[in-house]
Amino acid sequence: MCMVQVGSTLKQSFQNYQPIMNGMVKEVELGFLEETESWRLESDYFPSKVGGKPAWLALENLPSADDLACTVCRKPCIFLLQVYAPFEEKVQCFHRILFVFVCKDPKCCKQNKFDNFKVFRSQLPRENKYYSSEAPDQDNFDSTKPHPSAAQYQDLCLVCGTPGAKQCGKCHRATYCGKGHQTIDWKAGHKKICNPEEESVKISANSSLFPQYELVTEPEDLPDKQEKSDEQKMKEYAEFLKSDQAEGSSKYHGQ
Ligand SMILES: [Zn+2]
Ligand SMILES: [Zn+2]
Ligand SMILES: [Zn+2]
Asked: Measured in angstroms, how far is the CA atom of residue 69 from the centroid of ligand 1?
């Protein structure tokens, strides 16, 4: 139920990248970015998505600010994407999401290195304390029902949506993962709304996040699986009729 950092697994899969491309993987899933209603990207819809804040799966024991610090510069990595990848054969992985965070400083990006990336896996059994065991209703969305959210279990950083253990010293209501994001939010507008009496302190400008999209995946259309054109099929049929195969199949063979 807890978050497991899979940095070492990631490393391994990068090392195995070549053999995987040489035929170990039968099917490749391609991801496409699409705009969608924001409720489809909430945790209880188990989304695959890019940008915005993470839609956490397990809503507690989230990666800490330390887990999310860029290995190169120690600044917080920002949520890049998450992929819903359930593994239903295993009870514990009925729901499974992989989360990828990246440092936004281009200087931390080095060729063939992934020190500027942080990858986490979260998984839950079908019966769990956060979500219904029935699939979410995609057609009848009830906007009055609040979404289960990690914010119900701990304070989250107003800027990036990861655990926010630090509070604004003035209003004590805005929370942040660290000094860096507090400074960003202060400049982005918190200084104007920092008021212990007002609920609005929990709003952030969020300009440091990546734009948010749904990530829709489809199996790659490999050339040998593609539909043949009618012309191609007719040509093959004509060749088939001429061949011995056709003769053999149209005759009865006496005993
Ligand atoms: Zn960095
Ligand atoms: Zn933050
Ligand atoms: Zn404040």
From this structure: 8
> Residue 70 Cα, ligand 3 centroid: separation in angstroms?
26
User: Residue 175, SS3?
Assistant: strand
For the chain, how many residues are written?
255
For residue 101, the CA-to-ligand 2 centroid distance in Å is: 12
**CA-based end-to-end distance of the chain:** 67
The ranges assigned to domains in the chain are: 2-18+28-132+148-219
For 30, phi and psi rounded to 5 degrees? -100, 140
157 C-alpha to ligand 2 centroid (Å): 5
- CA 111 to ligand 2 center in whole angstroms: 26
218 pLDDT exceeds 70?
Answer: yes
User: DSSP labels for 108-133?
Assistant: G--TT--TTEEEEEEEE-SS-SSS-S
Integer Cα distance of 120 and 154 in angstroms: 19
Q: Return the closest-CA partner of residue 130 out of 151, 106, 116.
A: 151
Q: Which of 60, 139, 56 is nearest to 99 (CA)?
A: 56
Instruction: With CA atoms as reference, report the closest residue to 86 among 126, 59, 113.
Output: 126
Minimum mean pLDDT among 116-130, 149-163, 179-193, 196-210: which range? 196-210
Distance 156 CA to ligand 3 centre (A): 14
pTM over 0.85: no
Quick check: 170 and 194 in contact, CB under 8 A?
Answer: yes
pLDDT attached to residue 244: 62
| Per-residue pLDDT, 7 | 43
